[in-house]
């Protein structure tokens, strides 16, 4: 019985949408060959709701849109508003994205290199990318004036869901006929 409850918890926890009792029953039957009734499913859900009603948990299981979903308890909503507001600030402008792409594919690269490719001053954009910790200073170039070298950071890898820089798509990966200009006969 506890095993079934844990599987139902896992299903509900992993879902970003409300899950109906009938869906839980079907998934348990398909995945684990467990055949339970709607009443049993609702009893298990009730036990999960009672468990998460305890003040030790920051989330609760609620019924919404004829399904069940884990949500954060209301007493934590203000904290989460601050978290999401911070994440919102981390959105990247088009110019920052262009600059970030140049740095990612050409790293280590100087600000002058970025500006030559983009054709515009990139001082502000690089400063903002440093503030957001998407890029980092990786050293100094061995040229006159010893300009700073920039590369991507661990935060960049997390932001874009990469394990290593070589996971970035190559130009060959992006070359398709729908991305080409003009006739192929030219």
Automatic annotation (TrEMBL):
Gene3D superfamilies: Winged helix-like DNA-binding domain superfamily/Winged helix DNA-binding domain. InterPro entries: ScpB_csome_segregation, WH-like_DNA-bd_sf, WH_DNA-bd_sf. SUPFAM superfamilies: Winged helix' DNA-binding domain. Keywords: Cell cycle, Cell division, Chromosome partition, Cytoplasm. The keyword Cell cycle applies. NCBIfam families: SMC-Scp complex subunit ScpB. This is SMC-Scp complex subunit ScpB. It comes from Sphingobacterium corticis.
């Amino acid at each position: 019985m506890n095993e079934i409850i844990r599987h139902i918890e896992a299903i509900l926890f992993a879902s970003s949408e409300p899950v109906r009792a009938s869906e839980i029953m079907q998934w348990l039957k398909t995945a684990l060959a467990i055949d339970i009734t709607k009443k049993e499913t609702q009893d298990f859900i009730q036990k999960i709701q009672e468990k998460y009603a305890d003040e030790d948990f920051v989330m609760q299981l609620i019924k919404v849109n004829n399904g069940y979903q884990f949500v954060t308890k209301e007493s934590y909503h203000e904290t989460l508003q601050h978290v999401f507001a911070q994440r919102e600030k981390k959105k990247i402008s088009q110019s920052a994205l262009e600059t970030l792409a140049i740095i990612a594919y050409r790293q280590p690269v100087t600000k002058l290199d970025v500006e030559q490719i983009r054709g515009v001053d990139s001082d502000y954009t690089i400063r903002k990318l440093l503030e957001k910790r998407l890029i980092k200073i990786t050293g100094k170039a061995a040229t006159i004036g010893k300009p700073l070298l920039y590369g991507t950071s661990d935060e960049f890898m997390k932001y874009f869901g990469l394990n290593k820089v070589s996971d970035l798509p190559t130009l060959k990966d992006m070359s398709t006929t729908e991305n080409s200009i003009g006739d192929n006969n030219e």
